[in-house]
Amino acid sequence: MQDRPDPDALLQRIQQEQAQQQRGRLKVFFGACAGVGKTFAMLSAARAAQAQGLPVTIGVVETHGRTDTEALTAHLPRLPLRALPYKDRTLPEFDLDAALAWGAANPEGLVLLDELAHSNVAGSRHPKRWQDAEELLAAGIDVWSTMNVQHLESLNDIVSGITGIRVWETVPDQFFDAADEVVVVDLPPDELLARLKAGKVYLPQQAERAAANFFRKGNLLALRELALRRTADRVDDEMRAYRRASTTTPEAVWPNREALLACVGTGDNAEKVVRSCARLAAQLDLPWHAVHVETPEQQGQSATLHPQVERTLKIAQQLDAAACAVLPAAQPAQALVRYAREHNLVRVVMGRSTRRWPWQATLAEQIGQSASDLDLLQVGTLPSRSADTTERKTTRTSTAAPRAAFWPGYIAAALACCIAAVIATPLANVLELTNIVMLFLLVVVGVALRFGRGPAIMAAFLGVGFFDFFFVPPRFNFAVSDAQYVVTFAVMLVVALVVGQLTAGLKVQAEAATDREHRVRSLYDMARDLSAALLPEQVAEIGARFITGEFSAGSTLVVADDDNRLQVLPGGTAPVDMAVAQWAFERGEPAGRGTDTLHSSPTLVLPLKAPMRIRGVLVVAMPQGEVPGVEPRRLLQTCASLLAISLERIHYIDVAQKSTVQIESERLRNSLLSAISHDLRTPLASLVGLAESLAMVQPPLPAHQQELTGAIQQSAQRMSALVNNLLDMARLEAGAVQLNKAWQPLEEVVGSALAASAPAIATHRVEVTLPDDLPLLQIDAVLMERVLVNLLENAAKYTPADTTIHISAQPQSDAVALTITDEGPGLPKGREELLFEKFERGARESATPGVGLGLAICRAIVQAHGGSIRGDTILNAQGQAAGARFTLLLPRGTPPTDLGTDNDTNSDV
């Protein structure tokens, strides 16, 4: 008989189907690497769909010069691309608004969107193309796209470790998994390499470079395996979802992908079962689960798990079990079969058991009878040892005291039967014997509800005896005058036993359901309170209230600041050992009480793992030094996860607020500086012109007046340079400066910078060392000259006269390093990076003129060229400062003579 479907699950499924019907369908053509034919396969399928009358349009397709691929686009309509300015040129980009308008006009239309991981040009609505696809899907438009395995976010680091090439364009796994259909486009490595050599993947020059780096056969084999495995995982998830959603599928395991289930019992053989299952799973490279079924007898004997079970499940977690679960159920065989079918576990690994009674089937026989589709593997029992016997004796001794607590239930069962007999005795002449039987059955039900299975069995036997002795003629002896009463006694006993068993089982299940509901409600209340928390102290208070209410335990929250230093939040009630807390925080693993690490600690320390980073640790002090079991540990870990997510939410709220304030402050300051600078330029220009005119008047001014005129002219020029710096900084930060890049020799830029800064460096010697093999650089010569002039003037201002300024350059593999050194006091220690910020100077109070904008302008210009700049101090043999050194790294690019040999490279490589 099948279980009744869960109405909540059915409602959720209906809502998901309705939401899915309103979205477009996503189809991904998935491959191991570039060149396997993803775009070709997508266009071929699109033409077939077009032939069937489906509206199809090309949003964007990258053919990379392949003629066969380009031929497939001939009869497919295209959406016009959107031209976006990027630096000093204009780039074509996918027009999302045009695609949305086309989709609105064609309700069942299909948009082809090649290269799902592509990064859009700055100025687009979304930074990534997969986000464009998401908006199209949300509008109900079907999308077909392509991507390679190295673009999956979860596999990005694995691919970079295999190929040695880091791919920066990625797609989130959840977006890929949400695709309605994934088509694997596969090609053997030898055929792909043959296509590469034939020029069908890249142009000849690109193909030669790709074959030497990315397209090595070992890389292709590894990528092919990753793509096929990832697709198999996705298909397996789809199959499981179908089995869960289907109401017509028979309850049977589908052995399409094997997995193991280890049955954990309370015997000494449990650990061997788990270890054997782990070894078998490792040999076969299969996932495995460890499950223990907790029967009503076990739940009645103790409120916690059996120590052997707890120890065994802990071992299973250490052996990388995919899941460890404790299932409350009256019938272990049915619970195990149900779990195996829900998780599609093909093989069941269990210990070998013998029959307790000849008519009683073993657990393996019960599973075999109820699920013939499961494979059963029985593990041999361990040989008996004296140490084990001693341990079992100790266990029996330690559990004798709790069992003694159950004797009052048996006494109460006997008293209840006596009371029922006393009540029924005066009614013997009024009531029929069948009604008196019901009275004793009522006693059995009451005892089962109150005291459990054992006392109910005793009440059943006592009820039959009392009924025979006091009410069946001849009364007051156990003799029976009518043989029919023997049948009555048997039926009464069987009914009493069955009713007692069922009632006791239902009681245990009801208590377990009540406990689970209480835990879920507590977690819900905690999550609701955490969603409204705005301070870490509030998070700590909510967590402490939950742990106190659920476990009667103390707790303390220890959070990490931006420098990963742990800080104890106030209000905690658990003692904190900072050494244990630091260990758990650094390694992201539990430590302390009940773990294998620093287990002598009186507290349990759990790391607060948030999606982005570990936010701290939760310290829990259980009452009377108890060790939390598997279920309490799981509940504590859930609590720690909720606390971590809440702390991360608060952190990013704070970051967002600070960023907003900083952005507004920067915008206000730039606007103010720009306005002031514009207002000052005209009077400053007039002041400089008047000072120059005074110097040229006839007859000449007296000497002291000429000296004053020169000082006015110098001050006005310095003020004009300052205003120009302010204007340039405001323009650079506003993005109003367009780079006029051209291929320039570095020697000419250095020469023009030396000429422009000649008055400032007149008292210094300049040595220039530039090798003859320096490549041409694609730079804005005017702005780069400004960078060198600022650096040379800085060197002249902060170094003594008659010292030497050195200028040198060295070509590297992907950049040119330009270095300017001086023989001054060097840079302030610890403030090397801070000097590149606006309005930062080497000395807070200094007679040297300047406001600290020169280096900030240098960094802004160099970064706009895609380079970097850094400064450090040169040390002599005695470890003393011997000067400052500024190093510029400018990207080399491709010289003009090679422009015709390298087209745009596929972003897949």
SSE arrangement:
Layout: H1 7-22, E1 26-31, H2 38-51, E2 56-60, H3 67-72, E3 82-86, E4 89-93, H4 96-105, E5 110-113, H5 129-138, E6 142-148, H6 156-163, H7 173-177, E7 181-185, H8 189-197, H9 204-212, H10 217-245, E8 260-263, H11 270-284, E9 288-294, H12 296-301, H13 307-318, E10 323-328, H14 332-342, E11 347-351, H15 363-370, E12 375-379, H16 386-404, H17 407-424, H18 433-451, H19 453-470, H20 484-531, H21 536-551, E13 554-560, E14 566-568, H22 578-587, E15 591-592, E16 604-609, E17 614-621, H23 630-695, H24 703-734, E18 742-744, H25 746-756, E19 765-769, E20 777-779, H26 781-797, E21 804-811, E22 815-821, H27 854-864, E23 868-875, E24 881-891
Helix pairs in contact: 11-13, 14-15, 17-18, 17-19, 18-19, 18-20, 19-20, 20-21, 20-23, 21-23, 23-24, 24-27, 25-26, 26-27
Describe what this molecule looks like in 3D:
The two termini are 56 Å apart. The protein is built from 27 helices and 24 strands. The protein is elongated. Helix 11 (270-284) packs parallel to helix 13 and helix 20 packs antiparallel against helix 21. With 909 residues, the chain is of the alpha/beta class. The strands form six sheets. A five-stranded parallel beta sheet has the order 2-5-6-1-7, sandwiched between helices. Strands 10-9-8-11-12 form a five-stranded parallel beta sheet, sandwiched between helices. Strand 23 and strand 24 form a beta hairpin.
